Amino acid sequence: MANKYDRTLSDHFDGHGYSDHGTLWNSSWTTAKTPWDRQQPSVALSDLLLNKPELFEFSTDKTTRTALVPGCGRGHDVLALSTFGYDVYGLDLSARAIQEARKNEEAWNAEGKLVAKKGLLGNRTWLVGDFFSNEWVEKSGVPGGKFDLIFDYTFGCALPWEARPAWAKRIVELLALEGRLVCLEFPTTKPPSARGPPYNFTPEAYLAQLGHPGEKVYSNDTDAIVDGKWAGSPPSKDGLKRLMHIKPERTHLAGMEGDVVEDWISVWAHNA
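Structure tokens predicted for Methyltransferase domain-containing protein (272 residues):
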């Protein structure tokens, strides 16, 4: 099973603590070693938006809706979300990644791929910054610093388990009151003991961590097994509740084993 995950990335990070990760991600971009890049947007996300539009309806008549893609890389999903009418903000810690995203946007334009699927085409804004800081939020100019849709794919799983409580708490802070978080859950079947990134992230772990942001939900610091205290427990008042959890009909090859889809896609909302 471990062979389906590119080992060069794990080798690059091996022996380094979490405090070094930002530098390591940036060096991967500057040396053009980006094995995680899927070279296309998520079909699972597009299928969800097309087939389940009721999950993304607001009680208020908002004329403009915002979306955030943290760890956007070359921005494939940023570009795709804009075709659904969202004003999308692509965020990455690496300035080189954002340079590549701008090139990708130019290529989409040249190829005539930036076409609205519904209504108007949304705007795209590229930001360099640390997901956990407020500087990029202020620079974005998004009212209240809250986003109507957040898409997480190969971002949460790129963080080691020690950083996941803060990841979940930050997601909650950035999600608008009626907003929706969409997670393309990956890698769900990678052994907990296997090196990362990406690190094992099971549906049970998504449920426990997003339902209890800021809490340490794992049984210890050496594996990704959810502590029985959190397994199956209802979300806290400040947590997120899961509205939907399905296997997508289509996903990236990295989320499949032969013809079997291993990814899950989930939709979340504020519990309070």
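The CA atoms of residues 72 and 90 lie 5 Å apart.
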